[in-house]
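[step 3/7] inverse_fold.run input=structure_tokens len=563
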């Protein structure tokens, strides 16, 4: 697997290269990323962002961030702010910061132009009638009784709609295209509807709102976009976009190119479904570290570079684009491997008493912060009589190939000494609460001349110097690779993984971690990569999230479902 920030070739870049060679658009390249602010950005959006902003960067072009905000019922300033923050965090800078709602006046003008050309009409049919008269994939549509109204009347009613003379739903404006078209999008689509809703940008200025399809293509043209990149579901809308742009007085006609949506196993990438998870409290908000949202992944500890790397490797094509979660995880392992300092932590502590170690002795062990990068320096870790190791690293009745601590066994404490098992102390329920061991003074790490060889090396933390901090272990949000495939007639929420969050409230770790800043990342030796939580971690009271384990335990399973 290759990891690099060098964007691979793709068919869209081939088209752009060709356009530049032929001098099209004056060799200019202008793209945009056009989210509807009705949710937080997810990993699929990240792919589109990397594509649009990446192309603008590589071709010395421009890329706008444009909010396609035509449906005030579902949009909000919270979403706008989150989207801006996520794009900046991913490392991209927009040229224009645009809002389709800033074009409402122009859009209205183009609608009047269509009416004046006899290419749009007002319709008083009910929403239900309009829907049934639209026909189906196999059946053509039926003309509305309002279709042949005179231009003057259409104009008068449309102006009345804008002026607030009619109730919500009383009229709509429709394009007059072709009710017989095999493409349902061309069967006189609705362009405007009356909706008395407060808009986050235009307030109460409008009681009619343009439909997404009408707005989207004109907004691209207003911004002189050259290459309008979107996902495949808009392929069938392209003829409508072309029709609109061909029939209004605008000189720009962006070229739309469609690519396949990124899908990910063991999660969902649809704002509607993600919003359901939030609204029904299945997760702790849009930025819950288990969410495939950009802000969720950020909080989980993924780096912007790892997400960009993942998107580059997902590629851009028209064929199905289904990626494994383990690919994303490999990206962050790759990014953190040479950056994250190593520290020692114990998630489920059990006490080890070194019986031949004096009560008040404290040795300063010098530990490298990275095994392969000496420039990352060293730190001092105190070794004391009482230590903690992970409960998992001791077994009373182990299988034959168990090389960690066991009765009669020997283990090396990493960067410390070799210790030999002596005894255990149990509580009233028979549970082991303390392990007694002796240490071998000749085995101090770095100065070991004992010639002893041990197979197991485990991490440890001084019981007197370590700190306690909660650690949250995250895993797949769903138990099935395709939770939303509707098979078995179940809801995707039926497959939520009950073990997607496991809290380790008693974790102990080196005291240096008390001063970790939010978003500082570490490798906890043998356990994985961890981040100090962006919101919950405070100076002196850190809270850690596991970003990813050190090794991939899901990859094989996922490959069976991959593309
Ligand atoms: P959702 O289905 O999650 O609501 P959407 O397409 O409705 O997604 P928009 O806000 O309209 O969300 O998307 C903004 C841009 O991101 C569009 O150009 C869209 O094509 C692109 N996009 C959305 N989802 C994906 C995805 N899974 N993969 C790649 N691009 C995507
Ligand atoms: Mg959309």
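[step 3/7] decode complete -> sequence:
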């Amino acid at each position: 697997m290759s990891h690099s920030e060098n964007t691979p070739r793709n068919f869209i870049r081939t088209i752009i290269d060709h356009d530049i060679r032929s001098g099209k658009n004056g060799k200019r390249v202008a793209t945009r990323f056009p989210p509807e602010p009705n949710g937080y950005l997810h990993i699929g959006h990240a792919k589109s962002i990397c594509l649009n902003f990446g192309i603008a960067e590589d071709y010395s072009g421009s890329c706008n961030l444009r909010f396609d905000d035509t449906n005030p019922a579902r949009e909000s300033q919270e979403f706008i702010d989150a989207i801006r923050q996520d794009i900046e965090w991913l490392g991209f800078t927009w040229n224009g910061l645009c809002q389709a709602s800033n074009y409402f006046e122009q859009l209205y003008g183009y609608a009047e132009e269509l009416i004046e050309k006899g290419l749009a009409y007002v319709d008083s049919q009910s929403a239900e009638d309009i829907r049934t008269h639209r026909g189906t994939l196999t059946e053509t549509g039926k003309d509305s009784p309002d279709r042949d109204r005179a231009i003057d009347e259409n104009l008068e009613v449309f102006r009345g709609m804008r002026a607030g003379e009619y109730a919500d739903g009383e009229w709509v404006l429709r394009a007059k295209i072709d009710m017989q078209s095999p493409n349902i999008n061309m069967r006189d689509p609705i362009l405007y509807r009356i909706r008395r809703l407060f808009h986050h940008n235009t307030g109460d200025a409008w009681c009619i709102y343009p439909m997404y399809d009408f707005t989207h293509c004109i907004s691209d043209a207003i911004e002189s976009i050259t290459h309008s990149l979107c996902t495949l579901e808009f392929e069938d809308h392209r003829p409508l976009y072309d029709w609109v742009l061909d029939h209004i007085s605008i000189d720009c006609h962006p070229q739309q190119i469609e690519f396949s949506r990124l899908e990910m196993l063991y999660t969902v990438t649809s704002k509607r479904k993600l919003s359901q998870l939030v609204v029904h409290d299945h997760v702790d908000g849009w930025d819950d570290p288990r969410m495939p949202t950009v802000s969720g992944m950020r909080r989980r500890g993924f780096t912007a570079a790892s997400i960009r790397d993942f998107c580059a490797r997902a590629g851009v094509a028209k064929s199905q684009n289904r990626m494994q979660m383990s690919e994303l995880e490999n990206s962050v392992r790759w990014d953190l491997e040479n950056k994250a300092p190593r520290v020692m932590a114990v998630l489920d502590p059990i006490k080890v008493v070194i019986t031949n170690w004096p009560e008040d002795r404290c040795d300063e062990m010098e530990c490298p912060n990275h095994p392969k990068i000496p420039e990352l320096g060293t730190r001092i870790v105190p070794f004391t009589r009482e230590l903690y190791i992970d409960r998992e690293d001791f077994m009373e009745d182990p299988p034959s190939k168990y090389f960690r601590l066991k009765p009669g066994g020997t283990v090396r404490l990493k960067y410390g000494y070799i210790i030999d098992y002596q005894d255990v102390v149990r509580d009233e329920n028979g549970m082991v609460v303390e392990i007694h061991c002796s240490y071998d003074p000749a085995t101090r790490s770095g100065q070991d001349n004992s010639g002893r060889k041990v197979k197991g090396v485990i991490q440890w933390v001084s019981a007197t110097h370590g700190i306690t901090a909660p650690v949250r272990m995250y895993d797949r949000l769903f138990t099935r690779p395709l939770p939303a495939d509707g098979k078995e007639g179940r809801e995707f929420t039926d497959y939520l993984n009950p073990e997607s969050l496991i809290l380790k409230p008693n974790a102990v770790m080196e005291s240096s971690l008390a001063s970790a800043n939010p978003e500082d990342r570490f490798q906890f030796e043998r356990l994985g990569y961890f981040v100090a939580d962006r919101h919950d971690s405070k100076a002196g009271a850190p809270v850690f999230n596991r970003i990813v384990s050190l090794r991939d335990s899901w990859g094989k399973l996922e490959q069976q479902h991959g593309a």
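[step 4/7] annotate
Residues 43-58 form the longest helix (16 residues).
The chain has a mean pLDDT of 95.
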